[in-house]
Write a structure and sequence with these properties.
Blueprint (H helix, E strand, L loop, with lengths): L11 H9 L5 E5 L14 H14 L5 E6 L3 H14 L10 H14 L4 E8 L16 E7 L11 E5 L5 H11 L10 H7 L4 H14 L3 H9 L26 H13 L7 H9 L6 E2 L6 H12 L10 H13 L4 E3 L2 E3 L2 H9 L3 H18 L7 H18 L10 H12 L3 H18 L5 H16 L3 H18 L5 H16 L3 H18 L5 H16 L3 H18 L5 H16 L3 H18 L5 H16 L3 H18 L5 H16 L3 H19 L4 H16 L3 H18 L5 H16 L3 H18 L5 H16 L3 H18 L5 H16 L3 H18 L5 H16 L3 H18 L5 H16 L3 H18 L5 H16 L7
Parallel strand pairs: 1-4, 1-5, 2-3, 3-4
Antiparallel strand pairs: 6-8, 7-8
Helix pairs in contact: 3-4, 5-6, 5-7, 6-8, 9-13, 10-13, 11-14, 14-15, 15-16, 16-17, 17-18, 18-19, 18-20, 19-20, 20-21, 20-22, 21-22, 22-23, 22-24, 23-24, 24-25, 24-26, 25-26, 26-27, 26-28, 27-28, 28-29, 28-30, 29-30, 30-31, 30-32, 31-32, 32-33, 32-34, 33-34, 34-35, 34-36, 35-36, 36-37, 36-38, ...
Length: 972
């Protein structure tokens, strides 16, 4: 029997083993079920059996121990026979081994002596046919084996899975082994993970470290060095100290023995090629589909033909049979269509291969991964697993994947990484690839140029659109020189350059560039080429961004017809066009129609992509946002919360789309009447965006804008103005003065300055902004029209209501021409015009205008849209101002009933309506009722808005006024 190892590590398996052998059962130390890499050579099965034997002997519970190396049936028979002779079993005469073994086996049944039979390292289950120790209350049996499977099961047998050490067990073991030499234990956790927590490897590594005085960190460096072999990292078996703990084989020899055993198994000649292919892939999980690709089967067929006489091509079923054989031998583990393999088994396998063979293996594995990679990544976990396998192939193949050309797997994997929500990771991967390509191929090689294109694209996606523009401009110069103007890659670079110009703040320039590109693509590629159709999509999009949402919607509608004909209705590009069409319909003034279109699209996305695909999740996001635009912020918030839950699960908390959804949810909370909650949520989001994206990323800057806005809406207009002022400084630095976001920040800054009590200064700033917008965006851009709206309102706030009314009248004419009569912005302009007419001294005219507007809003927006409810409020107000306070009070009371139902009691608009109702009650002759209503309102505003909110302060003032008017005594 072997000796118990120095520093034997107590494990959970010790308790299990003791329990299952208590009543005379047979414990088979192996691997079963889904334990990862359990039962392989070196996990400590023999040591557990030694520990059990020592425990039983020291406890006085053992009369007889028989230890047999069960590597063959002959060895088992010889061990039984020898035991029979030494025990003087009747009839055992040391003449006939089989007869002596049979007599010993029979004796085990009847003896009352307490025995333990250990059959160590069973190689074939068939070797124990008729030789399993018999059941006996006095007897116990332990079998250690690298096998697993149903053949080991039977009456009275208990399969005890033995895996590698747990992390805590491995760490404790290494610290114990290195006790007294703390300088060597400088990176125990790293050592433990490098060696896969394999007991045999840890024992031999720590012995080597002690003998050589090598600390963990240096041992890890040697382990990572590909020039080092496993045998170079353990004590010399023939040296003065030998191997620790009475081991007879090194880690490498142990693994090689398992591989040799596998080679003798059926299907013939397949074990080693499968192990070799797996050895360059991810040890933590290889999709079984990789081994059944045409590329893998061709490779396996070729390798098998070199060592066997097998003829014909392999099929998928034979490959799976080979994998099952390796699984039974514990060289791999198959669980739910995933193959895992201990890293040391992989390394031992690779060390049996030449460098040239490793290069060929890497290329073959890359072929298989490329073939199995789905065109549509419906399963994010599967895509991540494929990327991890790509990393392993790169690691082991090194420059092999660039000979004679760059393997397409690299671009597929790196683009997948960016698409998964890690554009910065894609940038780093393509930068590293470009460095190697420049060394191997030079700057003008087609592969190098393709990588430069990918790198530029992901730079833009990582938040540097200006850097992307610069990179694509340089690339275009080289493409024109190397490939010529009509090469597809040159045209593609022009496409990318135009796109990132738009993203960098020049949508009109982007639209112009796409228009020029489209002409050349139609000439070179033809009108139905996918790239030509893609350019039409880009042109339509940037037309919309340049201020023509209706034109964008029309262009997408025309494109959709052609894409359905050329690509089919379920092609990703066709579905993307449907999404764009719905989006621009909403922007063109039809949010309800856009929501319907997104609902229909979501059904198709679920069918084509599945529920977890980023495009499906994006469609749910768009649908939720449009519900808010259509007047249902509460329903939109609920849908967005559900979406966020799914995105956190599928994409993770730091994915850009997850962060976007958090932004939308915060805004919807504000729209639903909780601006303070929106500000808090946006503040939390800003912290995460700064950490994940960096302070200058466009989305981070947009979050700062949202935070400033919601602070203002929550009652701090001065704080909002200060925040927008600080943001403007950064926008000018990052984007420049003419970027749309910079102009939008100037607009917001002016607005909140006015709201904070400086309408004249706000008007001046807005006039300056309008001059720049007319020059940069043009007179018909939606943002230019919005600024004219703001300027008109500021004129009124500064004391010129008649001038405001005139400005709104002029603006309405342009809105009707540019946007149409039913566009939400046109309807808002009519509302503003009516309001300022009233403020200019025509309350009756204002009431009439609001009455006409209400009719159209009921038709276009519906009765429960916030804007429709706001118009009812305005209509009631101007009726009162026109001389009918009682009618105003009645109308306001009816409105309040609907707002309580639609918006809820704490919505700012509901609270404002209660203030109006109290006011009109007073004006209608009930000052005491007005005072009571304002008192009740103040209680709720203090709770909802806080004591310093402007509306709370106004209510205090009104309460005092109406108390005085009703001759009530002042209180507090």
């Amino acid at each position: 029997m072997p000796q118990l190892a120095d520093c034997f590590q107590t494990r959970d398996a010790v308790k299990v083993l003791t329990e299952v052998t208590t009543d005379g059962g047979t414990a088979v130390l192996t691997s079963a079920g889904t334990q990862l890499l359990s039962g392989m050579g070196g996990v400590g099965k023999t040591q557990l059996a030694v520990h059990l034997a020592d425990h039983l002997r020291s406890a006085g519970r053992l009369d007889l121990l028989v230890w047999i190396s069960a590597t063959s049936r002959g060895a088992i028979l010889a061990g039984y026979a020898q035991a029979g002779v030494e025990l003087s079993v009747p009839g055992a005469d040391d003449i006939d081994t089989e007869q002596d073994a049979a007599r010993f086996h029979a004796w085990l049944t009847s003896t009352d002596r307490r025995w333990l039979i250990v059959l160590d390292d069973l190689t074939r289950t068939g070797d124990l046919q008729g030789l399993w120790p018999p059941p006996n209350p006095s007897g116990r049996t332990v079998v250690t084996t690298r096998l697993r499977g149903s053949a080991l099961r039977g009456a009275g047998r208990h399969l005890v899975p033995i895996g590698t050490f747990t992390k805590d067990e491995a760490t404790h073991y290494v610290h114990t082994r290195l006790n007294g030499k703390p300088a060597l234990a400088d990176d125990v956790s790293g050592l433990v993970e490098n060696l896969g927590r394999l007991p045999l490897a840890l024992a031999q590594a720590t012995a080597f470290m002690i003998d050589e005085g090598v600390p963990c960190s240096r041992y890890r460096q040697r382990f990572a060095d590909r020039r080092s072999r496993l045998d170079d990292l353990v004590p010399d078996p023939d040296g003065p100290t030998g191997l620790p703990d009475d081991y007879h084989r090194t880690v490498a020899a142990t693994m090689s023995l398992s591989i040799e055993t596998a080679e003798r198994s059926r299907p013939a000649g397949l074990a080693r090629p499968l192990l070799e292919l797996a050895s360059v892939l991810d040890p933590a999980g290889i999709p079984i589909s990789v081994f059944t690709t045409t590329a893998a089967l061709n490779w396996l067929t070729y390798r098998r033909s070199l060592t066997t006489d097998a003829s014909g091509d392999l099929d998928a079923e034979l490959a799976k049979s080979g994998l099952q054989c390796l699984h039974r031998l514990n060289l791999i583990t198959i669980d739910a269509k995933i193959v895992s393999m201990h890293g040391l088994v992989q390394r031992a396998t690779r060390e049996l291969c030449s460098g040239e063979h490793i290069a060929d293996l890497a290329w073959a594995a890359a072929d298989a991964l490329t073939e199995t990679w789905p065109k549509i990544e419906r399963d994010t976990a599967h895509a991540q697993r494929l990327r991890s396998n790509t990393t392993s192939v790169q690691e082991h193949g090194q420059d092999a994947l660039l000979q004679p050309e760059t393997h397409p797997l690299l671009s597929v994997a790196f683009n997948s990484l960016g698409t998964s929500g890690n554009p910065a990771g894609a940038v780093a991967a393509f930068e590293e690839l470009l460095t190697v390509q420049l060394r191997v191929f030079g700057p003008d090689h087609p592969d190098t140029l393709v990588t430069r294109s990918n790198l530029a694209y992901w730079r833009g996606e990582a938040g540097d659109p200006a850097g992307a523009v610069a990179a694509f401009e340089e690339l275009l110069t080289d493409h024109l020189r190397v490939l010529g103007p009509d090469h597809p890659n040159t045209l593609a670079t022009r496409n990318n350059l135009a796109y990132w110009r738009g993203e960098a703040g020049d949508p009109a320039g982007a639209a112009t560039a796409f228009e020029e590109l489209l002409t050349d693509q139609v000439r070179v590629l033809g009108p139905d080429h996918p790239n030509t159709l893609a350019t039409r999509a880009n042109l339509a999009y940037w037309r919309g961004e340049a201020g023509d949402p209706a034109g964008a919607a029309t262009a997408f509608e025309e494109l959709l017809t052609d894409q359905v004909r050329v690509l089919g209705p379920d092609h990703p590009n066709t579905l993307a066009t449907r999404a764009n069409l719905a989006y621009w319909r909403g922007k063109a003034g039809d949010p309800a129609g856009a929501a319907t279109a997104f609902e229909e699209l979501l059904t198709d996305h679920l069918r084509v992509f599945g529920p977890e695909h980023p495009d499906t999740l994006a469609t749910r996001n768009n649908l939720a946002s449009l519900r808010g635009d259509a007047g249902d912020p509460a329903g939109a918030a609920t849908a967005t919360e559900e979406l966020l839950t799914d995105q956190l699960r599928v994409l993770g908390p730091e994915h850009p789309n997850t962060l976007i959804t958090r932004n939308n949810l915060a805004s919807l909370r504000g729209d639903a009447g909780d601006p303070a909650g929106a500000a808090t949520a946006t503040e939390e989001l800003l912290t995460d965006r700064i950490r994940v994206l960096g302070p200058d990323h466009p989305n981070t800057l947009a979050t700062r804008a949202n935070l400033a806005y919601w602070r203002g809406e929550a009652g701090d207009p001065a704080g909002a103005a200060t925040a927008f002022e600080e943001l403007l400084t950064d926008h000018l630095r990052v984007f420049g003065p003419e970027h749309p976001d910079t102009l939008a920040t100037r607009a917001n800054l002016a607005y909140w300055r006015g709201d904070a009590g400086d309408p004249a200064g706000a008007a001046t700033a807005t006039e300056e902004l309008l001059t720049d917008q007319l020059r940069v965006l043009g007179p018909e851009h939606p943002n230019t029209l919005i600024t004219r709206n703001n300027l008109a309102s500021l004129r009124g706030d500064a004391g010129d209501p008649a001038g405001a009314a005139t400005a709104f009248e002029e603006l309405l004419t342009d809105h009707l021409r540019v946007l149409g009569p039913d566009h939400p912005n046109t309807l808002i302009t009519r509302s503003n015009l009516a309001y300022w007419r009233g403020e200019a001294g025509d309350p009756a005219g204002a009431a009439t205008a609001f009455e006409e507007l209400l009719t159209d809003q009921l038709r276009v927006l519906g009765p429960e849209h916030p804007n429709t409810l706001a118009t009812r409020n305005n209509l009631a107000y101007w009726r009162g101002e026109a001389g009918d306070p009682a009618g105003a009070a009645t109308a306001t009371e009816e409105l309040l009933t609907d707002q309580l139902r639609v918006l809820g009691p704490d919505h700012p608009n509901t609270l404002a309506t209660r203030a109006n109702l109290a006011y009109w009650r007073g004006k209608a002759g009930d000052p005491a009722g007005a005072a009571t209503a304002f008192e009740e309102l103040l209680t709720d505003q203090l709770r909802v808005l806080g004591p310093e909110h402007p509306n709370t302060l106004v209510t205090r003032n009104n309460l005092a006024y109406w108390r005085e008017s009703s001759s009530e005594p002042q209180v507090g």
